[in-house]
Amino acid sequence: MDALWLPGLFASAFLSATLLPGNSELALAAYLYHAPQHWLLAVLVATLGNTLGGLLTVWMGRRLPRKEMSPRTAWLTRWGPLSLSLSWVPVVGDALCAAAGWLRWPWRQVVPWLIVGKLLRYLALVPLARAAAGG
């Protein structure tokens, strides 16, 4: 396998977790097409990249000035860092990461739930990518 596949997957996953486009799902599917036997490694690399990108978004959210929460965002306070298990959802996940930073949730609570959310994203894609590749 070409030496640039995994770093490319990592970079794509990292960018996908920020406001920049990254298409990590396509990068994962392409990797799995060429190396389906390495699905676990691919999921771990993509999860690491996407988690680190999400943490960057959390950090940026911490730089935003605090304001009063609207009633529409009160559920974030109720669910707290557990809501980051939805960080895999496109667009919404980026907003959740920024909100986690804006709300100054503790890192020790943010990191595990962010990992769970990002891991779920890629684990859900593996069967779909393998089926599309005919495996």
Automatic annotation (TrEMBL):
The chain crosses the membrane at residues 39-61. InterPro entries: DedA_domain (IPR051311). Keywords: Membrane, Transmembrane, Transmembrane helix. This is Membrane protein. The lineage of its organism: Bacteria, Pseudomonadati, Pseudomonadota, Betaproteobacteria, Neisseriales.
